[in-house]
Amino acid sequence: MGMFVNPGNSAFQVALNSEIYVDKTGLLEYTNKVMNTLQGYICNSRPRRFGKSITANMLTAYYSKGCDSKEMFSNLEISKTPDFEKRLNKYDVIHVDIQWCMEPAGGADNIVSYISEKTISELKEYYPDVLTENLVSLPEVLSKINTETGTKFIVIIDEWDVLIRDKAADQKIQDEYIGFLRGLFKGTEPTKYIQLAYLTGILPIKKEKTQSALNNFDEFTMLSPGKLAQYIGFTEEEVRELSGSYHQEFEKVKRWYDGYLLRDYQVYNPRAVVSVMLNSEYKSYWSETASYEAIVPLINMNYDGLKTAIIEMISGAAVKVNTATFKNDTVNIQSKDDVLTYMIHLGYLGYDQVKKMAFVPNEEIRQELITAVNCKPWNEMLMFQQESENLLEATLDMDSVAVANQIEKIHNEYASVIQYHNENSLSSVLTIAYLSAMQYYFKPVRELPTGRGFADFVFIPKPEYKNDYPALIVELKWNQNAQTAMEQIKEKKYPSSVLDYTGNILLVAINYDKATKEHQCIIEEYEKAESL
């Protein structure tokens, strides 16, 4: 049992010893299936706090010859599969944590030589009769062992992208590291000695430079999780079960920590869920492990539409994003879309793969983004927040003239990048305009199913503000009139959808007249006893 070669299972045992462990060993069924195939090269990227290292430790504990893990896995999901014992602790495993290696290596300059020297030294203990020469290339050593013994290796690299992220501007370090990965994994020779390769990190494989080096890897990302979606975080079913066991209100947990839409799964941040279960404290646990300072320079980049997009998403809307332009590094960020794509990989935004839209996934992240915005204040943001508060106050005061004027002002002064073309444009501006409502209300529900149709916006107050703030049901019209919008609210019984959520309800009807370029508004209070 070595440090890099055939490690033991103690690291994974720590996870199993913890009060909360959610069984993700089903992933092993997939890796067993693709071993020794062209699909056996896997890069599974995800944000911090999403269990990357636990997964790498699990793979090591299951496959490594350096330990006996039968009892450890005997009650877990993988034990129910036919290949459980066939694959268990049967392989030579090389497990390297690039982040950990930085310090003992003496810095990024020495990472490749440090990993190579230490791994070769340990391999000599296992294959002394084979490694009689003084070889310094790890790929060459693995090839030699395979040629003389037929042995194939499982290679697991945790935090594989540390040098790509942290040393992106250092060309020499990048070139050496990329060359090392190319030699280890790419070409005909590695297919002889690689049984399974598993890389885990935050970023997908870097485009351009490593495309030719590592394009043989299947990538599973926050943009395209594929078959591994349910293993990237906690699923809704798993969180619901934990909420029951720890007597937490599931809907509250969902509001705070849900939102990552990965294929068919609603995925939750594991670290945050575990923390709230153990501590019963609903807050942002993000900054404890991943500082918002990482995104402050990003959201302050001078790209057209970036700040408007951030404000719109904080307000509860989703925005279109072209993820194809991002080069998977921090040096070649050149547009709003690149910034938003990077934030998706970092976990600060969710992504709808079908609609190609980014959004703020939950209350935890919303708070982090607001803190990041305020960390380096946007003057326009500070002024905008005041205008938004004025709009909310006018709405609550049922001052329809002031509401119409305020929406018009916000569009002209703060959201002019959104050009008025249709009702969707009006929706985008309205989403931004009511940003201040997020302090008192949940994320606005768009097109909430109601009595006989869909309301454009429904703002439901948070429980602590239920007695002080009414629910808001907002209907928008484009080039018609506000009265038509109000009649639709009543005829289609929109308030019926929120009667169980709050006491008072305000009905807000808004129209934009294309000819006069003016907004009109009508606000009425809805009485529960009233018959619509």
Automatic annotation (TrEMBL):
Domain of life the protein comes from: Bacteria
Pfam (any one): AAA-ATPase_like
Positions in coiled-coil regions: none
Domain AAA-ATPase-like: 17-208
PANTHER family per UniProt: AAA-ATPASE-LIKE DOMAIN-CONTAINING PROTEIN, CONSERVED PROTEIN, WITH A WEAK D-GALACTARATE DEHYDRATASE/ALTRONATE HYDROLASE DOMAIN
Name of the protein in question: AAA family ATPase
Lineage: Bacteria, Bacillati, Bacillota, Clostridia, Lachnospirales
